[in-house]
Amino acid sequence: MTHTEKINNITKQITIQTATGKPFAFVKKSVSHVVPNNNQKIKTTKINIGELTDILEINVSEKTCVVESGVTFINLVKATLPLGFIPYVVPELKNITIGGAISGCSVESMSYKYGGFHDSCLEYEIITGDGKIINCSKTKNSDIFEMIHGSYGTLGLLTKIKFKLYPAKPFVKLSYINFSSFDEFWNFFTNQCHTGNYEFIDAIIHAPDKLVACLGNMITQTPYLSSYEKENVFYKSTLKKQEDYMTTEQYLFRYDTECHWLSRAIPILEWRAVRKVFGRFFLGSDNMIRWSKRLNKISLPLAVQNLPPVLAAKKFLHYKKRPDMIVDVFIPKTKFPTFWQWYKEYFDFFPLWIVPYKMPNGIYPWINYKHTAKNDENFFIDAAIYGKKNTALEIDYSDLMENKVFKLGGIKTLISRNHYSPTRFAEIYNLKLYNSIKQKTDPTNSFGTVFERMVTKQKN
């Protein structure tokens, strides 16, 4: 089926459903990386967009690529890397889709120079809520183009994307610089971001006195190669080694096998023998996300397991909907030392993934300018908290984090569990601009609003 045939089929279905006024949802082949919103209404009508998985063009001379929105980054890299290119930003999990990286918030170790994947995009094709097709870029329908990122599919269905490619080499050399003091780590880390001598910069904080800066460059030859797709555990290796070598593909997806470090939730999954025999069933981000969703339905929070039966049942009904914390928070660089001291005291959960992130063209328009004016900077530090248990009876850590990030003038990705009141939400997001674009692309609200789709439980 050609791309035109695919989108004509989708637009026809959207037009029919919009005319009937029935709510609908899109069905994709990929696993969702968004924490489920239990307050969302279930939409029984499904529109299949799972066929949007073709790479349409790789232009070597122009260093550009055109793909359908359902293409995964692993399939994209496998197609472009043999030609000497990779995307400017490659999210660390293999089966994140191109459309998902744009609609959500993609980050990785090239983000300190190039921002998110969407910052390398040149053109979008979207289907509107009433079944029309719109093409947009920085020069055509530019207001729509700039707002698609961070809209989580609520301004239109992305169907085709054109983006720039980055020249690549076959291998990556990594250097691991260890620190026992946050101040020493912070001075070194921010200086490396300023000098820009490395293509890849991120960090893993294993503990308050075990901070590792991870610095990398692509190379053409290597003395040896490490692999972290099976028995070996990448995040643990950063404590044991001073340098490492990988293929570029394996480096880009080095966190996928553990889904960062979620394998720690079942310790035997980090045993070599178990990984060798059963790894293909349990390891990898897709497997772990599927298993976590299955187990979340039947697991009783540790916080209520030792309570009397009646009280346990009552508490369980209230707390069972709290998933483990999976959240990225973007803290203004100048405020990060303050965040760090607070995090140590109130969270004390490690490892913590640290990714420096620059908004290349200034603050994104979907952010309320009054919120960003608190900081007057466009350089952030993404702190990624993956797997913290949130079943304590006395405190909701998700809510606690959300409030702290707001006070520091930061941004919390909405793929996590959210608690915003409508007023607080409007203080962070540029809803005036969002609503004006919504009138152009989805006047009947067929796709729902960002607030409706992403906020888990509204506050009074």
UniProtKB/TrEMBL annotation:
Residues 1-168 form the FAD-binding PCMH-type domain. GO terms for cellular component: cytoplasm; membrane. Gene3D superfamilies: 3.30.465.10. One of its GO terms (biological process) is steroid metabolic process. Keywords: Membrane, Oxidoreductase, Transmembrane, Transmembrane helix. It is found in: Membrane. Its EC number is 1.3.1.72. It is a single-pass membrane protein. The keyword Transmembrane applies. It is an enzyme of class 1 (oxidoreductase). SUPFAM superfamilies: FAD-binding/transporter-associated domain-like (SSF56176). PROSITE patterns: FAD_PCMH (PS51387). One of its GO terms (molecular function) is Delta24-sterol reductase activity. It holds the Pfam family FAD_binding_4. This is Delta(24)-sterol reductase. It comes from Candidatus Magasanikbacteria bacterium CG10_big_fil_rev_8_21_14_0_10_36_32.
